[in-house]
Design a protein that fits this description.
Low-confidence stretches of chain B: 1-17
Structural class of chain A: alpha/beta
Strand content of chain B: 5-15%
Mean pLDDT of chain B: 84
Number of strands of chain B: 17
Helix content of chain A: 40-55%
Number of strands of chain A: 15
Oligomer: heterodimer
């Protein structure tokens, strides 16, 4: 009766199945990098993975590049969160891109996976902020072209506590109390998950870095959080936690943090530039480096975004040419900034955009900062570190909990 | 024994007794339109198959090539043979099963026996390549030399400009002065006697040539200590030095500066005698190591044990509580005496109609100890730390999941109750059975016949209910110690954590091993449970 129809259905199903088979079985998927037959004759093709925010800015730089070299540039848009795992998984199979956008704290994992190539910026290196280059350096070798910095800073409500920055934690609390605020400061702990990232500025002001840095600025795997300094920070956390003054509590997550500041319940907060759009109800905002809690300058983590070159790239020369001579230029960097405003890693551009006092505040904070460690072991560190901080804030014995965390970490890192 | 027979479908034997139906294939009456359509469709399938086979051939994916050849051959045989009528209907489904289920399972099992993860992502060859890349460093003293790529009888070389003088060399031939060379406007040599200058545009658009230029190292002098010239983009060169040497025969990397020999180890890394290893490793088969590690590793085993019992407790308790509550409400709102039953029933479905992950996020906010509405309204503003205390957090997870899933059971039980045979219940009432007796001996057993398979499915679903855990507690509060797991983690969220997909160090081997264990657990529980439900059917 319906024989033709049944056959159509079957054939359609088979077709789908065969199409599915290719991606399931690991043959080159349609959007992947494998250059086709025609491309090899017509000129090389550079495949770049990017996220949506940066796609257009890169396309502008790519157009000039295409014109000059005759090569074609193919941009593949992906979710930023997927880039790292996809890059590690696909480069060894020969299907990855030539270049990918990425964050500097992936670097250790990328080096361990052997999927990134070194980069030589030559004279262009002098155009970039030192902390950005340091972040993209692993074991003395530069692996990526940095283009933006991000960090957290002290954000304050000028109408409540004035323009001036508090120099210390105690001064901050005192000024907030004089202003009659409900809470002196909103600090995001990611709820019960814990957020060592936000707390790190205060921690470094006690002289307890997460890892010891060697002379070149590279992190060693020696845990720096133990000993007297770390214990002092733990005690400070406990004193300001639920069992003490209650200023820091694990009930504050990202949204509550921003709500507390935006509604004027807290005149200070520690946040990054990405949260500024949430503060629409605060007319006058000032941004300053994080005040010291333990006496030494507070050094928050600096995150750096950049461009990595695949170690399996068949277009190593072309990729280097594109990055150094077409993306490491002021025009290209400005296009990237305009597409997705983050603090530029390109020094002259950073100085230019610093005419905005808020950006200047974040820039000043980043200049005090240290790159977030990029060694692969950092993943284990976050889990243990965040958990210990949450337990201390919630009233656990500070010194014992902290030292337990440090010794667990040392065991984990071997 | 009679019970067993009723469980086989009665229809199975009936066609045998009806007059024998001619097979569709045998009833073929020449080339009709159907055959033409079939021919066209099969041609399309074959064309697609050949296209895939060709690209698999080019990519060197022999597994895909073999699979596609077999699939196309089988498809042609099935659809053009007259003896394969049932297969004509089964083939697409079977092929889907093979590709999407069996392949995934086999692949996961394969990964479970390797150490694939951070630091073990590629092959040994790639690890060697990476080690050499990471080792080669630019001489900090070296300036950028303007450079041209030159060619002589198929051999590539570099011509550089050093202080106005041109020097030329090749891989086996250290740099020598080339006094008669001419320089172009850009500062790079344009003509070198004895050599042909390769235009830069040619290099940049020829992938093959690019690879050769990128790999070319021209020694600065006879002394290897002086390093060699390499170029990164084909227009400038600089002096690079490297200390690692790959010995293909011995399969070792030797550091010529310190004399350290890095030999491959069993777990896929290059290790020196003193135990230090190079950062990049490769993945190797590790046998049952991952399975053994899950139960013996002191850091992991304790946490995984806790996670395992909580996974069972969570799945069982969720099904029991939500089934119980759903049934209770179904009984109440099925009573003819309740007014506006339909409106009320609709209202009960609301939580079910709301996306689960949104509800979980909403509950996370409501359960916040300081700002949450639960503590404010029901606990007089007391700071009950719902999400921070291990037992309260477990309770909160169960509570929210109950809230999310009882409407489903309400719906199912209402339907099942209305389908119960009224005469059986009436007969029981006439025999003098009380309300409780009727429920316990008739309604519940009959209800379970239709709902027990759903309960098992619900158990399997909740055993892997990642969403609620991830959105409500993210597995927290964390266990003390360094497992990275927490009190409300279930196996699937623990696997997610261990796999490193969320960031941090990945261990796909261990995560795959755990996935296999979860698969086995769910499989065994399902088989046992379905056997039990068959017993329930005996009631009928």
């Amino acid at each position: 009766m319906n024989k033709p129809m049944a056959l159509v259905g079957l054939a359609a199903a088979t077709t789908l199945l065969l199409a599915g088979c290719t991606s399931g079985g690991g043959a080159p998927a349609a959007e992947s990098a494998a250059p086709s037959e025609e491309a090899a004759g017509a000129g090389a093709e550079l495949v770049i993975w990017t996220d949506a925010e940066r796609e257009e800015a890169i396309a502008t730089a790519a157009a000039a590049f295409e014109e000059e070299t005759g090569a074609t540039v193919t941009l593949v848009q992906k979710n930023f969160e997927d880039l790292r795992n996809d890059f590690v998984a696909q480069v060894p199979t020969g299907e990855g891109p030539d270049i990918t956008v990425g964050a500097h704290d992936w670097l250790g994992a990328l080096v361990a996976a052997g999927v990134v190539s070194t980069l030589d910026l030559g004279e262009a290196a002098g155009d970039f902020e030192p902390v950005a280059l340091e972040a993209m350096t692993y074991d003395g070798q530069l692996y990526a072209l940095p283009y933006s910095l991000e960090t957290i800073a002290l954000v304050q409500n000028v109408d409540m506590v004035g323009e001036e920055a508090p120099a210390t934690w105690d001064e901050l609390v005192q000024r907030a109390e004089e202003a009659g605020a409900e809470r002196p400061i909103a600090i995001n702990t990611a709820g019960e998950t814990g957020d060592g990232y936000t707390m790190y500025g205060f921690q470094t002001s006690f002289g307890a870095p997460v890892f010891v840095q060697d002379e070149s600025g590279s992190y060693t795997t020696e845990v720096g959080m133990g000993g007297e300094a770390g214990e002092a920070f733990a005690r400070w956390l406990h004193e300001n936690g639920t069992a003490g003054s209650g200023i820091i509590s694990t009930t504050v997550d990202y949204d509550i943090n921003n709500e507390l500041f935006n509604s004027g319940q807290a005149p200070f907060t520690v946040q990054g530039p990405w949260a500024m759009s949430a503060f629409t109800d605060v007319p006058n905002i000032a941004v300053h480096p994080i005040p010291s809690a333990g006496g030494e300058p507070a050094a928050p983590f600096v995150g750096v975004q950049g461009f990595y070159v695949s170690s399996q790239s068949e277009n190593a020369l072309l990729a280097q040419e594109f990055l150094v001579n077409h993306l490491a230029t002021e025009d290209a960097q400005r296009a990237l900034y305009e597409a997705d405003p983050r603090i530029p890693a390109f020094t002259s551009l950073a100085e230019e955009v610093a005419s905005d006092p808020i950006i200047a505040g974040f820039l000043a904070s980043s200049q005090n900062g240290v790159p977030m460690p990029s060694i692969p072991e950092m993943g284990a560190v976050w889990d243990l570190w965040n958990a210990a901080e949450v337990q201390i804030i919630n009233g656990a014995d500070p010194v014992a909990t902290w030292n337990q965390m440090v010794s667990d970490l040392e065991a984990e890192l071997g | 024994m009679t019970q067993l027979q009723t469980s086989t479908p009665p229809q199975a034997s009936s066609p045998e007794r009806t007059p024998r139906l001619e097979s569709h294939a045998r009833a073929w009456a020449g080339t009709g339109w159907g055959f033409v359509v079939k021919l066209v469709l099969m041609a399309l399938v074959n064309a697609l198959g050949v296209a895939i086979a060709i690209s698999a051939w080019q990519a060197g994916s022999w597994l895909v090539l073999g699979a596609i050849v077999v699939l196309v051959a089988v498809a042609d045989w099935v659809y053009f043979s007259r003896r394969t009528l049932p297969l004509k209907y089964l083939l697409p489904g079977l092929a889907f099963l093979a590709v999407f289920q069996i392949f995934l399972l086999v692949y996961t099992a394969y990964v479970a026996f390797t150490n694939y993860g951070t630091g073990h992502a590629g092959s040994m060859e790639q690890a060697v390549e990476a080690a050499l890349i990471q080792d080669e460093r630019r001489d900090p003293e070296s300036p950028d030399y303007p450079l041209a790529v030159v060619e002589r009888a198929g051999e590539l070389g570099f011509a550089i400009v050093d202080d106005g003088a041109v020097r030329v060399g090749a891989a086996e031939e250290p740099l020598t002065d080339a006094p008669d060379a001419t320089l172009g406007d850009g500062g790079a040599p344009t003509e070198v006697p004895g050599w042909t200058v390769v235009p830069r545009a040619t290099i940049l658009t020829d992938t093959d040539l690019q690879g050769r230029v990128a790999e070319l190292r021209v020694p600065v002098s006879d002394d290897p200590e002086d390093g060699s010239i390499r170029t990164r983009e084909g227009a400038t060169g600089a002096v690079y030095t490297s200390t690692l040497v790959w010995d293909e025969q011995a399969q070792t990397l030797t550091d010529t500066e310190t004399g350290t020999v890095y030999a491959p180890s069993d777990d896929g890394r290059f290790v020196a005698p003193d135990g230090t290893a190079l950062p990049t490793g490769w993945y190797v088969g590790v046998g049952f190591d991952n399975f053994v590690r899950a139960v013996t590793d002191a850091r992991l085993a304790g946490a995984l044990g806790q996670v395992t019992w909580w996974t069972f407790a969570f799945a069982v308790l969720t099904v029991l509580t939500s089934f119980g509550l759903g049934l209770l409400f179904a009984l109440i709102y099925n009573h003819p005496g309740v007014r506006a039953r339909r409106v009320l029933r609709t209202l009960f479905i609301l939580p079910y109609a709301f996306p689960a992950f949104m509800s979980a996020l909403l509950w996370r906010g409501m359960l916040n100890a300081e700002f949450g509405v639960i503590n404010d309204l029901f606990f007089f503003g007391a700071d009950v730390n719902w999400l921070g205390d291990p037992w309260l957090a477990r309770f909160a997870v169960l509570w929210v999941n109950l809230w999310l899933s009882y409407p489903y059971w309400f719906l199912v039980c209402t339907g099942a109750l209305q389908a119960l045979p009224p005469d059986t219940i009436e007969a029981a009432t006439i025999d003098g059975a009380g309300r409780w007796r009727r429920f316990r001996s008739i309604i519940l057993p009959l209800l379970l016949v239709s709902t027990a398979p759903l309960a098992i499915a619900s158990f399997a679903f909740n055993f892997n209910n990642f969403t609620i855990i991830y959105m409500l507690t993210e597995g927290g509060p964390g266990f003390p110690g360094n497992s990275g797991l927490g009190a409300t983690d279930i196996l699937i969220s623990a696997i997610y954590q261990i796999s490193g997909v969320a960031g941090g160090a990945a261990d796909y081997g261990l995560a795959s091993a755990l996935s296999i264990l979860v698969f086995i657990v769910i499989g065994v529980v399902s088989i046992l449970a379905f056997r039990q439900t068959r017993k329930l059917e005996e009631f009928q």
